[in-house]
Amino acid sequence: MRKRPLKGEENSGRNRPQQYMKKLVILTGAGISQESGIPTFRDANGLWQNHDITDVASPQGWMKDPELVLKFYNLRRRKIMKVKPNNGHMIIAELDNYFDVAVVTQNIDDLHEKAGSRRVIHLHGNIFESRPVSDPARIYHIEGPSLNMGDTDEFGEQLRPNVVWFGEMVPRMEDAIEVTLQADIFIVAGTSLVVYPAAGLIEYVGALIPKFVVDPDIPEMAEQPNLFLIPEKAGIGMEMVKNRLLEEFL
Question: Most buried of 50, 73, 169, 219, CB within 10 angstroms?
Answer without folding.
Answer: 73
